[in-house]
Amino acid sequence: MLLGVDYYPEQWESARMEADMDRILELGGNVIRIGEFAWHRMEPEEGRFDFSYFDGVIAMAKAKGLQVIFGTPTATPPAWLIHKYPDILSQFENGASRAFGGRHVACYSHETYRAYCAKIITRLAQHYKGEPAIIAWQIDNELGHEGSDQCWCPRCRASFQQFLREKFGGDIRALNETYGTAFWSQEYNNFDEIPLPAPTITTHNPALRLDWERFCSEKLRSFARFQAELLRKIIPGAVVMHDFPSGGLGKHADYSALAGTLDRVAYNNYPVWGGQKEPLPPSEIAFGLDYIRGLKGENFWITEAIMGAQGHDVTGFLPRPDQAKLWSWQGMAHGCEGLLYFRYRGATKGAEQFCYGILDADNVPRRRFYEVQRFFNEVRPYESVLTTPVHSDAAILYDYDSLSSFRIQQQSLLLDCEAEMKRLHGVLFRAGQSVDVIPASRDFSGYRLVIIPNMIVTDPGFTNRLKAYVAGGGVAVVTYRTAVKDRDNNLVFGKTIPVDLCDLLGLFVEETESVQEYHCIPLAGETGSGSAGIFRDMIVPQGAQTLWRYDDPFYRRYAAITRNSWGKGTVYYVGTTPDQAILDRVIGQAMEAAGLESLALPDGVESVVRGSGEARVRILLNHNETTVCALGQELAPFQVKVLPL
C-alpha cells in the first residue's frame, strides 16, 4: 500500500533533504511524488537538460527505502519558452492571452508547445529508464482544471474546423443539414467559415456548441494520450497515471475518455477549499470518490489529501482534529488504495503559501503531523481488504453529451445536473449502499438498481440496452429531461418524449415547464403531500401507475412520478425535482424492489462494506462533531471503526 506525501525539494535548500526524508519515514510513509512543476529545473535553458538535481533526490529516496512517483512537468512551461513563443499562451473568450505566471497557461493545440513537451518527456524518460525507485509516471497535473479545458485562440479555431472536417468527411452540406444552419441564415460554404462559439448576440447553434465541447474534450484526451504513449514507448511497462481534480462532471472534458489512456487513475481530494465556510457534506465527498472510481471502474490513488487549511489567496476552514484523518479513511473506504498528502511542508514563497501541509513553515511537528502518522499506522493492517475491488449493486449513469447539452441550454436557471446526481446518490449513501458513478456507455447489466438522471441526449443503442436491462429483472429510476435530444443536440422530429422510451416507461410527456423556484409545485400522493420545483414534465400515463401527481389547479390531471412494470423488472419515472422526503420515499421503494438493504444510520454516519468472501469488514465513519451511536457502536467525533463481518 502506497502511503506518503507530495514533496517539492526544489523549493527548499538541499541541505534539508535528508532530514525531510527521515521525517517522512517517521510518518510511516513509503512514497513521495516529485517533479510535476519543475520544468525549468530540468531544462534551465532551451536544449540544456540537467537532471542531476533529481538524480540526487532519487538516490537519497532509494537509500531511505522511499519509492517515487515522478511527474512530467508540462503543466508549467518555463519562462524562456513563453518568451520565445508567446503565442503558446492560451486565450480567453475575448481573445486576450492568458499571462505567464499561473499554471496550465499553454494552448494544447499549439504544435510548438507539444514539440517542446515531447522533448522534455523524452529526455526525462530516457534518463530514468530502468530506475526501479520510480513506480509510476504522472502525466501533467489536473488537466482541464481552472478553465484550462478551453482555449479560444486562432490555432484552436483552425483545429476545431479540422475536427469538424474529419467528423463530416469533408462534406459541408452534411454539417449544414445536421446543424440546421438554415436557421438564422447560418449556412456555411466551407469549413473555414465556421466560428468558435465565442460570445455573440443571443447564442450560437446548440449542435455547433456540442461539437465544440467534444473538440475541447478530445484535445485534452489527445494530449494525455500523446504523453502516455511516449512514456510507454521509451519505458515499456511504465505505469502511467494522472491526478484528476474535483468537479469533473462540470468540465469541458470527458474525464472517463481521458482515463482510458491511463494505467492508473488518481484524485486530488479537497473536501474543503479556501473561502468555504465549512466542508462539503459527507455524501458529496463520497460522490466525488465514487465518480473517480468509476472513471476506469477500478480502485484509484489519492495523490493530494489535505490535512491543513487550504487556499491560494483566500484561506479556508481548518479541519478539526481527526476530521482530515476521517476523510482519508473515507477515501480508502471508497476504493483508494494508495494515498499521499498535499503537502509535506507548507510553502513559504509562491502562490500556495496558504495551502497548509503536514508541517508549517516553522518545520515543527505538531498535531497534523501526528494525525497523519496515526492514519498510516491504522490503515496499513487493512491493506488486503482495501485493495480488493469495490462491489456495488447500484449505479448512477452520466452522459458527457447530456451534461454538455445542459451547459449549452440550461433550461431552468436552477437546474444543476451534478447537484441532481448528488441528491440521488445521497439517498443511497445515507442508506449505507455503495454506488458506482459511471458513464452511460459502460455495461450496467450487472447492477440491481440503475439511476438515469437528466440524460437529455440519448440514442437507440442506449435505450435498447436500458429496455433489455429492465426486461431482464433490473430496477431503473429515470428522471425528467431524459431522452429528449439526439446525439447532435437536436430535438427529434416525429417522436414523442421520452424518445424511444414511452413504451418502457408506460407514459408520454405532453408538455414541460421550467420554473425558477425549488418548492413552488404542490404534489399529492397516496401517502400524503409535498412539493417540487426546478422543472416538470406533464406526464400522461399509458399503463404506468401514478405514485405522485401535480396538485395545482391547472395540472392536476398530470402525473409527476410513476412506476411501470416491464418484463421481469420495474422502472420509475421522476418527472420533476421533488422535496427530499418524497425523493427518499421513491428511491427507497426502488431499492426495496431491487432487493437492496437500507440501514438505519444516524445523520452524518457512513457505513461501507469492503473485502470479499470471509475477509470482509464494515467501516463506520462518524462525520459529526459529537458522539453518536450507530449499529450498536459508540463513535466519538470523527471516529472511524473497522468491524469484522
Automatic annotation (TrEMBL):
The active site is at residues 142, 304. The keyword Zinc applies. Residues 6-379 form the Glycoside hydrolase family 42 N-terminal domain. It is an enzyme of class 3 (hydrolase). InterPro entries: Beta_galactosidase_Trimer (IPR013738), Class_I_gatase-like (IPR029062), GH (IPR017853), Glyco_hydro_42 (IPR003476), Glyco_hydro_42_N (IPR013529). Substrate binds at residues 103, 141. It catalyses: Hydrolysis of terminal non-reducing beta-D-galactose residues in beta-D-galactosides. GO terms for biological process: carbohydrate metabolic process. Residues 393-597 form the Beta-galactosidase trimerisation domain. GO terms for molecular function: beta-galactosidase activity; metal ion binding. It comes from the Bacteria. SUPFAM superfamilies: (Trans)glycosidases, Class I glutamine amidotransferase-like. This is Beta-galactosidase. The lineage of its organism: Bacteria, Bacillati, Bacillota, Clostridia, Eubacteriales.
